[in-house]
Queue: 3 jobs
Job 1
Amino acid sequence: MAPSKKKHASSQPCIIPGGFTELSLRFSSDSVSEHKLYLKEHKVRAEKSSHRPLDRTLFVLNMPPYCSEGVVKELFSQFGCVQSVELRDHPGSSKESGPKLSRFFKPADKQGFKVGYIVFQNPSSVSAAKSHPHDAPLVVCTEQRQVRTGAQKWIQQYTESFSHPEKLQQIVDSFMEGYDKRKEEEADKKREEAEQQQEDEEGWVKVTRGPKGTKGRPHSEAANKRTLQKEMRKKKRKELLNFYTWQHRNTQKEHIADLRKKFEEDKQRIALLRAQRQFRPY
């Protein structure tokens, strides 16, 4: 009975501090050494990314360099259908903003151990991966899935670094079309904001500097008409109150004189009520 209990206990998942579960990897079926992965359910309150759902994302540490995103997707597909795989040098929030760049327009990935975010289609797949026995390692390289390492991997990467000129030209043209389109949209947006500038309460217009290198456009008839209308509205307005310092001083003096006049009137009224014996302060 004792051996059976020991065998049953070893088939349970190994949980370590921090909520991580240990998962073993073997490069091939005849490998003796094992590599340990540490995984847990991705739960970050500050995570605002739409393609990292908190109930279907698995966070994995200590991902070996020979495991690419395609290999990781096939490796974890035994727990359920994998929607996406993201490998990064350090854990952090996802970068959704900005266009998706080709490998020709971004620096090469660093070679080393990585962290992974594996998104499944069903939440039950996360539990299945966490409950996998730690004494049943996953095999990375099989006959159906060949994973190259060492000199073979370097030769493959060097060969794949070359691209056909026509394919490269298509990638460049597609990128430049998107870039020009974004710049035109930004310029149109700034132009509309400049045209829709409105005067404030005192009749001033906020003037902003346009982007560097942009040429001024000739004034159209509609723009000249709007300018004339603004000038007519300015002429119809009265002189601005307290525009100069001396105007502000005079206004203060007039206000103080008015208060003094009201004070004297109040004193006379109180004296009259006292004389008539009708003054009852309490």
Job 2
Amino acid sequence: MDAPQKRQNKNWKDWMSQLPSHLQKVPLNKLAIPGSHNSFSYSLDPQSQVAPDQSREIQAVVHMFGAPGRDVIHRWSITQNLTVEQQLNSGIRYFDLRISRHSASGKVCFVHGLHGADVIPCLEDIKKFLESHPKEIVILDFNHLYAMEAGHHASLLETMTEIFGNKICPFLNMECLTLEMLWESELQVIILYHHHIVSDNPFFWSGSLIRSPWANSTDISHVLSFLDKHKRENDDKERFFCWQGVLTPNAQTIISHFSGSLKDVLASRLAPFFVTWVKNGKNVNCKHGIFIMDFVEMADFIPTVIDLNY
């Protein structure tokens, strides 16, 4: 059985622990890591109020049309079907987190158009996975934060510290950040938090330590050419780099496909093209970094990214 066949038979729950020894000694940002875009959007509640990441115009439309308006937003805001546990078991190791304090409950929830699950239980699910898979590392990127004041940020950071405890990797020089070092120190969680409150907190990484350019387009060829233009940027030695294989709907897209969904109209069309682009990365300068897309179960995305490491 050749090497590719062996890798196909691997258990993706533990793919990091199965990497060859030479890859355990390279900086983490030089590995190919599969991630998910808007990772927790599977939990969006179609009955919830419109989230503060939406414009006043969208909020006014939903106020006018009620449940039918929320249904449209729901179909065009969901970017993942797999739960966090399913994503982890499938090999996802980077999570894109967008959060907001819910004005009614006061809880911090995931958002993307609408409100989703409470953040805390989902983080506890991640902790359970890590306890069962002690050599797997996850990157949590809190990059869109809404309706939160300083006290809410401080409370969330304190709660995350309590949940993950000594599994949290403090900010380190990227050259030191290898699987070998993380395993020796029993560290499993890197938390990027895009708010100045973490500037004096050594256990959280600044949002400036990841570069994640966004094409913001509905056109497949534009997204692929946009990615091509950034091939040299992922050689940054001090930061993570994220390749976003996503199409982004605009108002015209939604109006033209009013009964459709982001998955059917956009994501399922892009997936095979993006995965082919990822495969071709072996031949050019984009065979490492974080790779994300919508509906990560499509088009053999996860094993294709992991295979770049070989």
Job 3
Amino acid sequence: MQALRSLIIPKWSSDVRLEGKTAIVTGANTGIGKETAEDLAGRGARVILACRDMAKGEQAARDIMREVKGAKVVARQLDLADTKSICLFAESIYNTEKALHYLINNAGVAICPYSVTVDGYEMQFGVNHLGHFFLTFLLLDLLKHSAPSRVINVSSAAHALGKIQFDDLSGEKDYHPVRAYAQSKLANVLFTRELAKRTEVLGVTAYSVDPGIVNTEIIRHVRRPLADIAKAFSFLIKTPAEGAYTNIYCTVTPENQLLTGGYYKDCACAESSWAGQDDGTALKLWAVSCHLLGIRWR
């Protein structure tokens, strides 16, 4: 069983160091985000753990400092379901950080019952896409100032099931938790493609990542029969550390070996779904996102 698992979930490692670099990882108090943050801290980077729950964020920072000698990590409060919180977080970053080399948009909610963000957006679209879209918009000047820099958006293979429902982004007409999740993950892929086009000349590259099926808290809303299937095939489910590999790969791999705007899985460039390659939809989503947030992206 272990031999089969090692074939399906290959090991990956890199000895690249990141001294003098600063990274933000959203949702870094648990799962893939925490493992990503710990790895980057182990490479010498300064890592900001952007967490909704500050108690959990500070505990994660203590855990990482215990595991990584000399780790430079700090927890900051960020609620991606609240645009005011996103503004306050960005303001604190500009007040305390001289540079930002890596923005890893990792946090997310999955397959949850219908609810809305503080600003009235459907929760999965609001957190997984709009929250990170707005955060990236606010931090872009610092990313440009720190170039070469990177934005990494954590998507999912579920994006292939997605369609951007422009006539019902709020989910009020016909909400289904899996469909809403798939839509938000497709939005991550499309956002990455359009962002890459707009920022490459500024020295900011962008990548979307499929971490695979990972045993994290994000699947807590999954019920039977999916939960039973997951249990039966648990040997194929990645640990959070394994799920973080492609995040880290897209952070440390030399830029000339990566494709900006690309979709990555298992530490290699992969093909997203046809919907994920639709530049017309990507451009429309960009315009709609700016309109919903009341921003003008230069």
